[in-house]
Structures are given as C-alpha cells and as structure tokens.
C-alpha cells in the first residue's frame, strides 16, 4: 500500500504561512527574473490566470482584482519542503521524495483498517506544524495513490466533481468495487499520472475518455497500440503494483547551474563573476552528492528574443586531467573557458556551468589532484587533507549563512552580485537570522 502526500499550491502556501493576509486572495509566484507565473493560488486560477502567464499580461490585476505577485524564494520553499517531508515521513516506514512538494510513503506493515485515520492525523500534523495545507491519497499502487490524491485535492472544488467526503484524504483501500467504479467513470483519462496530453487526446479519439473506459481495454492491446509504459499504467490502475518505491534515488548524472540575467551583461568582469558564482554553486551540489567531475562545460549566449542584438552563442567543454570536487579547480577551468568564449560588445542574456563525467568519490580519495596548468601543486597527503577540509568548511558556511558569504576572487560579494530581477521576493523567514519574523502580520 502507498500514500502520496502533496502540499497544495505549494509555493503560494509557503508564502502565506508568513503573510497570512494573503490567505483567500489571488496570489502568484513569478519565475526567475519575474518573467511569468509559475505558481497560482486557487483564487488566482479563478481569475483565469494560466500557468506560465507572462507577468506583464496579468500585472493590471494587481490594481483591479487585488492580485499579489511575488518573486520566487527557493530558499524558503526548500526549507519548508524539508519540514513538510519530515512530518510526512511519520505516516509510514518508507519515503520517496518525489518533488519539492510531493512524496510517496510506503505503508507496508500498517494495519489496513487504521490507514485512513493515520492519514488524517498526518494531514493535520503537516498543517499544524508547518502551516502547509495538504492532501493525502492512498492506494495499492503508486498510480492509484496519485489518483486518490488528485481526488482528495479536487473534491472540495466547485463545481464538485467528487463526493465531498473524499476531500483532503482519499483512500482507495477503504472503498468497495462499486465506489471505485463510480470514481473511475467520473475521472478523465488525462488526469491519470503519467498520461500526457498527447496520449490522452489519442485515447479520446478512440472513445477512451474515462479511467473506466481505459480499464475496459485489453492489456495486450494497450501495449501494441500504445506502449509498454501505458500498459504499466493499466496494470497499476487495476491494482497490480508495477512501480516500486524509489527511496534511494541515485546521484545525478550531471549537474547544471544556469541563469538568465535580469539585464544583459557585456563586460568580461561581470560575466566572470556570474560564471564563478555558477561554478561555485555547481561544485557545492557536486560535493553534496559525494561525486567528482571530469568535465566542465561553460556556455553563454545572447537572447533570441532581443531584436537588434548581434546573435552569439558558444559552449566550451573542458576535460579535466583528473576528476575533482574542488571549487577552485572547477572555477579555474570555467574561467579559462570563459576567456575563450568571451567576445566584447555582445549582450549576454544567459550563461551556465555544467559538470559532466560524474563519478562517485570515495572517502579514501581525500583530495583531488589538480593537474590543471594554472594550479598544479604537488600535493602531499597533508595538503590533500587540508584541501578537503577547506571544501568542507566552504560548504558548512554556505549551508549556514547562505551562498555568496565566502566567495572566490572574481565573484562579486553577495550584495553586489550580477543582477537578477527579483524585486518582489519575500524574506527567508526560516533560514536567515535577520529575517526571522518577530510578529506575523
Ligand atoms: Mg502540489
């Protein structure tokens, strides 16, 4: 048995925890550089604001409809997510964190007749302890748990598509066949986890509109006409588990840190500062997953949307002589690449650093060998140990005081960094000492 715990309108809910005056009012969170809406409260959806709507098209609603638009605050969302996940983990013995606001919980060993009550308790604990409204779906497969969550989330929307009693917590395991058949007939096939718009449209043209229609098909037909993946979904909807709980996701195969600039960047010094920031952050992520890299990729390009700008895009791949996790070596390689790709009088709008060729780093490899030309010390064992301690200290400071507290030479310090338009960002209420709210308005 599986549960799927999901925070409702997660980014908006995180903001509302600390700004309760935003409760019940239309709220959107904007993408990097305040470009477009990437999260919407129910009230914002009711105003007809689409996912991805450009800010300039909805800006007038701030005056006419009381809309609030905020810049993203991933420090806040990440921290609130950790808190929510910790409480959600109390629901069962295993947890797979599926996204920033969703996790699967493995429920084996828990008495079936207690599941609904347990889920209600977790639902209330998350709301009480973190302030995040949430829904929980339970089912014998991951796909059914996901579907139960969808029902729990939509059951109290208007017009009511599902019985109100299923709102917030919905447990397929507590239903009889007739109740399940009713829900399957009421739910569009496109609402099922993993069935995208294109497949849903194809199925509809074949007369398969609801889950009930889909379950009437024959498994072999589904595989032959569509795919093995869709056949898996078919089995899962029939209550036959095919998807396992993935509670130990492997390390990422590549690490990327890329950003669009709020204002175009032309000077080499500014671009070097940005690249240093990106490489530093990527190296931090690399060490968090205990990996090392053997290839540093740097790219920078102009905007395809700015007419009149000379178009330019360049990517440089630098293989490292030996794998490393040292920020200084990675930044060094990235800056040499930047020297090669930089052209004056170009208005750069986006740049990034990617780390490829990742391998696991073993504890015995206490330090990387920096055999790169610009920094080729002959390292003794004690030097290696010191180098690794330096990286550990760098990570500890970044985790505690924020990225940009300690920076390498070419990087501007945190308060004068290359500009990103995030004019409407809320404080880091839970992670920055100076931002801790003294009173909640
Ligand atoms: Mg959600």
From TrEMBL:
<dbReference type="InterPro" id="IPR043128">
    <property type="entry name" value="Rev_trsase/Diguanyl_cyclase"/>
</dbReference>
<dbReference type="InterPro" id="IPR025188">
    <property type="entry name" value="DUF4113"/>
</dbReference>
<feature type="domain" description="UmuC">
    <location>
        <begin position="2"/>
        <end position="196"/>
    </location>
</feature>
<dbReference type="GO" id="GO:0005829">
    <property type="term" value="C:cytosol"/>
</dbReference>
<dbReference type="Pfam" id="PF13438">
    <property type="entry name" value="DUF4113"/>
</dbReference>
<dbReference type="Pfam" id="PF00817">
    <property type="entry name" value="IMS"/>
</dbReference>
<dbReference type="GO" id="GO:0006281">
    <property type="term" value="P:DNA repair"/>
</dbReference>
<dbReference type="InterPro" id="IPR017961">
    <property type="entry name" value="DNA_pol_Y-fam_little_finger"/>
</dbReference>
<keyword id="KW-0742">SOS response</keyword>
<dbReference type="InterPro" id="IPR043502">
    <property type="entry name" value="DNA/RNA_pol_sf"/>
</dbReference>
<dbReference type="GO" id="GO:0042276">
    <property type="term" value="P:error-prone translesion synthesis"/>
</dbReference>
<dbReference type="InterPro" id="IPR050116">
    <property type="entry name" value="DNA_polymerase-Y"/>
</dbReference>
<keyword id="KW-0227">DNA damage</keyword>
<keyword id="KW-0741">SOS mutagenesis</keyword>
<dbReference type="GO" id="GO:0009432">
    <property type="term" value="P:SOS response"/>
</dbReference>
<keyword id="KW-0234">DNA repair</keyword>
<comment type="similarity">
    <text>Belongs to the DNA polymerase type-Y family.</text>
</comment>
<protein>
    <submittedName>
        <fullName>Y-family DNA polymerase</fullName>
    </submittedName>
</protein>
<dbReference type="InterPro" id="IPR001126">
    <property type="entry name" value="UmuC"/>
</dbReference>
<dbReference type="GO" id="GO:0003887">
    <property type="term" value="F:DNA-directed DNA polymerase activity"/>
</dbReference>
<dbReference type="Pfam" id="PF11799">
    <property type="entry name" value="IMS_C"/>
</dbReference>
<dbReference type="GO" id="GO:0003684">
    <property type="term" value="F:damaged DNA binding"/>
</dbReference>
